[in-house]
Amino acid sequence: MKEPHLVLGIGELLWDLLPEGPRLGGAPGNFTVMSGRLGNHSAILSRIGRDDLGRQAVGELDPLPADTSFLQVDPAHETGRVTVAFEGGQPHYEIHQPAAWDFLELTNEWVQLAERADAICFGSLAQRSRESRQTIQTLAAQTKAECIRVFDVNLRAPYYSGEIIQESLELASVMKMNDAEVPQVLALLGLPVLEQGDPDQLRGGAERLLDEFPSLQMVAVTRGGQGSLLVNRDEWHEHPGIPVKVADTIGAGDAFTAALTYYLLRGATLETLNDAGNRWGGWVASQSGAMPALPEAVRERIAAAIEG
Ligand SMILES: Nc1ncnc2c1ncn2[C@@H]1O[C@H](COP(=O)(O)OP(=O)(O)O)[C@@H](O)[C@H]1O
Ligand SMILES: [Mg+2]
């Protein structure tokens, strides 16, 4: 395979409106930036409004290794915003609707890009609208057979359903979820859920999904500071996590997914995939924000630790 690989983050690009100010995010955006930082040719497939926040999003992404040239501009709908309010220390999210990213349009340009992609990543939130759901699923279906199709579920209440998860898993070759999402996903699919605290809960759930969905090759379950579990059709591997001094964990899961994807494209073993996911997830958790700047010396040090 020629380098660099073409990797696409598909879905919502939005601003988190935090008490301290707006911060660019959305899992597909975070994934795209991290994928670019790791060395892929990485593009964001989303839609912004013809407004200040849209221009600011492009302004923020343009100096980063994230290709913004495929972003759509919606003449009628505003750039996505999420109001984050804290009540008693707990964050509450209001994901404004409709947003420009609810109107992802299936253009020939996007289809041709999807046909060339080596890996894509999509989630459930952007599928809340009929139009974006249709576009995302058609793009995933148009990728070449060997393309790595990652479904990073990222459940955001109330914008998910068993149907969205079912349809997405039928298209995916890799699924990523966190440990809290495992019982939710199984229940939404009408599959049996093992008891919380059952040592086999996560692995049993992952194996069940592999049984149910023939196109699925791997299930990744992350466990915050407790690391992660990778399960494929032949084996499984557990990682205890990399202890870090946490700044904030926003985007840690997206970094895990980006690193997993990067090393899957290089045919790495489960052990290396797990190490890479945790080292990069842990690094983002140790930094403030979901798209922290990555000094070249840090990139080299972490890559050397992973690649030995
Ligand atoms: N407190 C933490 N300490 C160290 N690593 C962390 C921490 N939180 C997250 N990570 C890293 O990020 C990965 C994904 O985090 P997790 O919270 O499970 O996912 P998500 O962000 O999707 O909910 C973890 O597997 C781990 O590698
Ligand atoms: Mg997540």
Task: Characterise the protein shown here.
It is a single chain. By secondary structure, the protein is α/β, with parallel strands linked by helices. The protein has a domain at 37-45 and 103-307: Ribokinase (UDP-N-acetylmuramoyl-L-alanine:D-glutamate ligase, 3-Layer(aba) Sandwich). Helices cover 37% and strands 22% of the residues. The protein has ten helices and 14 strands. It has helices at residues 27-38, 52-61, 108-116, 130-142, 162-171, 181-188, 201-212, 252-264, 270-285, 296-307, and strands spanning 6-10, 14-18, 21-25, 41-45, 47-49, 72-74, 80-87, 90-95, 119-122, 148-152, 174-178, 218-222, 228-232, 236-239. The strands form three sheets. An eight-stranded mixed beta sheet has the order 4-1-9-10-11-12-13-14, with helices on both faces. A four-stranded mixed beta sheet has the order 3-2-7-8. Strand 7 and strand 8 form a beta hairpin. The mean pLDDT is 96. Magnesium ion is lined by residues 152, 154, 178, 253.
